[in-house]
Amino acid sequence: MISFRQRIIREHNRAFKHWLRLLWRLYGQEAPIVLMVHGFKPTRGECKNAFELTCASFERLMRFFMDNGWKALSQEELGLMVGQCQWQSKCFHLTFDDTYDTVFTDAYPILKRYGIPFTMFVTKDLVDQPKYITMEHLKELAHNPLCSIGGHGLQHLVFRNLTASEMTEQCVKGKRWLEQELGVEVKAFAFPYGRLIEVSNRNRRQIHSMGYDLAFSALEGSVRTSWFTGKHYLPRVNVSEQFVEKFTVGKFPRFKDCEGR
Q1: Domains in the chain, number
Q2: Range of the domain at 54
Q3: Which of 62, 61, 91, 68 is nearest to 78 (CA)?
Q4: Which of the residues 104, 131, 204, 234 could staple to 137 if both were Cys, CB 3.0 to 4.6 A apart?
């Protein structure tokens, strides 16, 4: 049986998601979106959850954007848009969480072919682990002008469970490590897991003071709702097989097609 405190947190998460969905329904089709992608599988039958995608579907989505007049935003362009609240329709920014090595082997050639900028959110302890990106591949990505590097913690932890000093260690030391190892400036952060169940209001306030220009959640919605979420808890859209199937035939996807869980 869950505690009363946990029930309150769940209700808070549900209410927050409800408002994001309402706002997206009102003007989502006229607002920029941030896409959240994880790893890739060879076939659709091997995609066992909403975080897994085939490379063919990913390329189909990128080609759809390019063929239909969408603008691929760099992280800097997205930051300016959020900071100035000057929204453009048919814009997207592409992000990758956890940094599976399939991002380098499968997605990177497609992104170079289409000239699409993207952000890699890197967890230090996952680098050079089985299935995850190698430092050699990460350095190659980091030095391509298309790629921006973002923080994702030293370890992939639930931030709500961390003390303020533990969160500082995860975010500040993680940022410093990335900048020293890769020789790039790290300006963005994505919360591991990313829902309100895993990210507290204290976490969201604290990340603001750590030198990050932007921070991202794992809740679905448009960045036009930054007036509601703040620029340090921006919504994203999870890219699943179902999302690609709907979006590339011109259908505005249902919310369940955009959720990772």
Answers
A1: 1
A2: 4-257
A3: 91
A4: 104
